[in-house]
Design a protein that fits this description.
single chain, about 400 residues, alpha/beta, Rossmann fold, five-stranded parallel sheet, about 50% helix, about 15% strand, globular
Length: about 400
């Protein structure tokens, strides 16, 4: 790919990521989701299920982890996010009471084979099944599910993005999962009308905070440049609570964007193992919105300072001690409720990887080895003797 094509591709991706700074660009996705939810808002199962499994792979698994937090916190359900392959092969270990269980399959394009398998297996066992994906009636996951929530995955196409990088469509999947949690909470009695109004206002406040995305991009690029100047190689991302999924998506997307190897770990658990692998060229990216993560963030910053490890903190709760210990701080817009921060805090993870790859003059998100996930297949490339086909 020539330089002009690389520049054009990178510019299209950046325009897409910054598009949500305009609140109007949310309208189509939210309308699709609301219309989907209206189709089954009066169904009895909404008040009867007490367990939810959310399955997916890659960015969809990250979205599933965010959904787990919302389903537990907002709808007060037993919720668990799982890799779709794991659930599909060990479904009987999870479907203990299928008649009280909802299985949500998350697949942006709606054709992930193992997600469809999960929905088929769960449906056959008597569980309620729901597909969270883009539009289209012929999608494998939509066919396999009893219900579905549609959202605007096609936005990537409209921005002519040249790489299979789910960014804004990922945000719209999150919004769909969030709205499902609110609807379940209303129907099972965990939320009353005032509770629903609270969460709707929190979502609206978060959408309004997206106007800061351009300035957030510039600030994150400063952090990326500082890490490049330090000779950074590879990275780790840590987060906790509702941002476990943000951490997962951040580590995944930075790796996909800039071809660096990255680890994603829970904030406290990281100290008990992977921390010792850091050095002065492996930066630690810390997702730390105001509130519960602060104490452990400061423990980690103390360790980074003692070990000489560069750290970048993403937070809206910045103290003098944090300023002194962190190598770089990206100040985030204030979000009132921590459970809405995943919708915003994932952006600087994307921006970080984007800037590193762009600074090298390469296409951000280009598939390494020419192997997107769908092409990593034994049967498509080898015969039963293990010999290469073609």
């Amino acid at each position: 790919m020539d330089k002009s094509a690389v520049n054009e591709g990178n510019e299209c991706l950046l325009k897409l990521m910054l598009s949500l700074s305009e609140a109007s660009n949310w309208e189509r996705a939210l309308t699709l989701t609301d219309q989907s939810l209206q189709l089954f808002q009066d169904d009895a199962w909404l008040s009867e299920v007490d367990t939810v499994y959310v399955v997916g792979h890659g960015s969809s698994l990250a979205a599933s982890l965010n959904a787990e937090a919302w389903l537990a916190h907002i709808a007060k359900l037993r919720a668990q996010a799982l890799p779709a392959f794991q659930f599909s092969r060990y479904a009987d270990d999870y479907l203990i009471r299928p008649e009280k269980t909802l299985v949500v399959g998350v697949s942006a394009r709606g054709n992930t084979a193992t997600v469809a398998q999960c929905l088929e297996i769960a449906g056959a066992r008597g569980a309620v099944t729901l597909c969270l994906s883009g539009e289209g009636d012929e999608l494998a996951c939509a066919k396999a599910a009893r219900y579905r929530i549609q959202t605007d995955v096609d936005i990537e196409k409209r921005y002519n993005v040249k790489v299979p990088a789910f960014t804004i469509s990922h945000i719209f999947l999150l919004a769909g999962a969030f709205k499902l949690a609110v609807q379940l909470g209303l129907r099972n009695g965990s939320l009353d009308a005032s509770g629903v109004d609270y969460w709707q206002k929190q979502l609206q406040q978060t959408i309004e905070a997206m106007k800061f995305l351009p300035s957030l991009f510039e600030r994150t690029c400063e952090a990326s440049a500082a890490m490049i100047e330090l000779g950074a190689r590879n990275f780790a991302v840590v987060g906790t609570g509702p941002n476990i999924g943000t951490m997962k998506e951040g580590a995944l997307k930075i790796s996909e964007f800039c071809w660096m190897f990255g680890a994603g770990e829970e904030l406290e658990d990281f100290i008990h193992g992977r921390f010792r692998e850091l050095d002065d060229r492996v930066p630690l990216l810390i997702i730390s919105p105001a509130g519960k993560p602060y104490e452990k963030t400061m423990d980690i910053l103390a360790g980074c300072t003692l070990a000489g490890t560069p750290s970048v903190v993403f937070s809206d709760e910045i103290t003098p001690a944090m300023k002194k210990l962190a190598a770089f701080i990206v100040e985030m817009p204030k979000i009132h409720d921590e459970y809405l921060t995943p919708l915003l805090y994932v952006f600087p993870m994307w921006f970080y990887g984007y800037h590193i790859r762009k600074s090298e003059g390469e296409l951000v998100g280009e598939a390494r080895h020419g192997l997107p996930a769908a092409k990593i297949s034994f049967k498509a490339n080898f015969n039963e003797s293990g010999e290469r086909i073609g």
